Amino acid sequence: MPVPQTPAVATPPGAPLASAWGTHSRPDELLRALEGAEARITVRPSGDPAWRSVAGTSLAALQRQAVQEHGTAWPQPLVSHYARYFRDGNRTAYEDLVAARQQRLTRAVVMALTPADRDEAGEWLDDVVDGAYLLCEQSSWSWAAHDDVFRCSGDVVPDRGRPFLDLGAGEVAAQLAWLDHVLGAGLDSRAPGLRKRLREETHQRVIQPFLERLDWHWLGLDGDVHNWNPWIHSNLITAALFLVDDPRLQARVLARCIEGLDRFLASIPADGAIDEGFAYWWNGAGRALEGLALLEEATGGVLGADLPVIRELVAFPHRMHIGGTWFLNVADGPARAATALPWDMLHRWAVRLGEDNAARHAASMPSGAPEAAAGLGRVLHSLFLGISAPGRHHQGVNAPFPLVPFTYLPSVQIMVAREAAGSTRGLLLAAKGGHNGEHHNHRDVGSVVVAVDGTPLLVDAGQPTYTAKTFGPDRYHIRAMQSSWHNVPAPFGMEQGTGSGFAAEVLGLPTAEQPRLRLALGAAYGLQPHQWIRTSTLDRATGRVTIADHWDLRAGPHRGGSHASTPDGAASDVDITFLASGTVRVGPAGSAEVHPAGIPGTDSGGAPATGRGAALRWEPGSAVVLVDEWHLEDPLLSAVWGPKLTRLRFRAPTPSGAPGAFTLTVEATP
């Protein structure tokens, strides 16, 4: 196969890996360090005695579904499914079938690794052969929503001569690489020639486009580095290690991957914050950590990554923890952690770095059984290393969450403060400044989240199902992305603007002793910054949260440019919105209560919850309360919040734009 020429790429300024590794990450030195690499990989091929000990509940769900689908037709994505994205914006018709095919293949790999007997192993190897070959025959490994075929040619079918290297292509390449690593000998005996085909397809669809082109947006060469960068680069590391047999080509691919990961790490602020939030941490920072761990194993420790930026990244998930499976969500992220996240990976990094709070948190999170949706690499690591391996629950199975009392991340202007350290009891306040040019941005500058006893009650709706509209010019027509459905004000009824210039200004830094975030929010609406001031405070002495808004709108709204918008009929009033989850009762004389409701998928099973709620108070007569119910038809939103969310809009008259003020206090109900 032809070996592509590799365009030169400059090392990013301040690159942590280049600074730590020096010349060790150059292709010539990598060539030596990678000798015998596969023998050093922690996850071992089939036949290793450790696989015989993998059994029990960690396998039960995978085995059950694998047996049910064995002998049935494989999921078959069709060109009509692919074309739907370009016709009507539907992503799921194609992506769900592709995911179902890959998840079935992952389950077949696990069954072939852990068979009950030799005959059964052969049957499952046949399934692996079929699934892998179907991927080789699949016209495109990219997802239709990412492919540029329509933009370039007007076609709605993949162009096999111009493969698009995206998240989907990277996932397929890594899956084929892992199955080749663990089942290679069996594949050679069962289907000679298959492994050659895997290598050819991976080279043509992934390796060659990666080395030949520098216009992939996810490389971050334009300075915009986001989660695609580590996700794809880490999958390419896997593909290069297991599916590239030419040592020199392998070293060149890995050197380029290291440059890419370095660009991502160089973009991370000193506080380790991820502007895409907790959920995207796993498919951004988490992917980078997996890639770095694999590089270290492959090079026998020559490339190690005990770096300050890694320490801060490892701490981010527990700093965003509210309680149980609830986490502070910003941007396109759900408020509840997905099941079967690779907490074992985070725990290994935390222990290695001596980050005790991060280790305690990872040890305490319920991992559940591995799920094929996590990807073959994560499933293999969880099974081989043991999701309850000795040391993970290093303070016992019921090790307490650290539940740190205070966090402030200046790069994203996020404060999280809880009433009692080490306990979910009482109030938690999260307040956010930031700007509206963040990755996966929602118009949420100045937003707050308030939880009682570890359950969020004043909430951020989070991520709905993606469609073509999600990442197009109509993104902010989607309700979940609008400021009018976040816990923020609306001067003159205005929506916030889009772009990094629509931002908050921090007027007073919070401290652990005084968790109070004071923000100037006017610029988020195209106003002068100090025309709207919001102060969000947790008072531990009184057990009270206050969100105090002060405004002076006499200068009127700024109407130039395509940013903040002013709805008709709302020119003289302001709205201050709070989105509530659960049962909302508006009482007399400036009062309301929000009580948690059972949510499908939680321990309550959808039954009414019995925990404490939030008592809301405001000055009687200071605002008229408008109540809107949002009935959640989107499955991603209803899975988190149940059937509905409730918006409370406090409408405060401001005649002639006069100065005004409104304060909401929140306490836990008895």
Write out key terms for the chains shown:
670 residues, alpha+beta, 8-stranded antiparallel sheet, 18 helices, elongated
What does this structure look like?
- The protein is an alpha+beta fold.
- Helix content is 34%, strand content 17%.
- The protein contains 18 helices and 21 strands.
- It has helices at 16-21, 27-33, 57-69, 79-88, 92-113, 118-137, 149-153, 167-190, 194-212, 228-243, 247-267, 277-281, 285-298, 308-319, 343-353, 356-364, 376-385, 635-641; strands at 321-323, 326-327, 406-409, 414-418, 427-432, 435-436, 448-452, 455-458, 489-491, 499-503, 505-508, 516-520, 532-539, 544-551, 573-581, 583-587, 591-595, 614-617, 624-631, 644-653, 660-668.
- The strands form five sheets. It has an eight-stranded antiparallel sheet with strand order 11-12-13-14-21-18-17-16, with no helix packed on it.
- A hairpin with a 2-residue loop joins strand 1 and strand 2 (326-327).
- The protein is elongated.
Topology record:
Layout lengths: L15 H6 L5 H7 L23 H13 L9 H10 L3 H22 L4 H20 L11 H5 L13 H24 L3 H19 L15 H16 L3 H21 L9 H5 L3 H14 L9 H12 L1 E3 L2 E2 L15 H11 L2 H9 L11 H10 L20 E4 L4 E5 L8 E6 L2 E2 L11 E5 L2 E4 L30 E3 L7 E5 L1 E4 L7 E5 L11 E8 L4 E8 L21 E9 L1 E5 L3 E5 L18 E4 L6 E8 L3 H7 L2 E10 L6 E9 L2
Antiparallel strand pairs: 1-2, 3-4, 4-5, 5-7, 6-10, 7-8, 9-15, 11-12, 12-13, 13-14, 14-21, 15-20, 16-17, 17-18, 18-21, 19-20
Which class do the helix and strand fractions yield? alpha+beta
**What's the number of extended β-strand segments?**
21
**Broad shape:** elongated
- Main beta sheet, described? 8 strands, antiparallel
Radius of gyration: 26 Å
Beta content comes to 15-25%
Strands across the major sheet, in which order? 11-12-13-14-21-18-17-16
Mean pLDDT: 91
Helix run count = 18
Helix content: 25-40%
Unreliable sequence segments: 387-398, 559-563, 566-571, 601-608
**Termini separation (Å)?**
71 Å
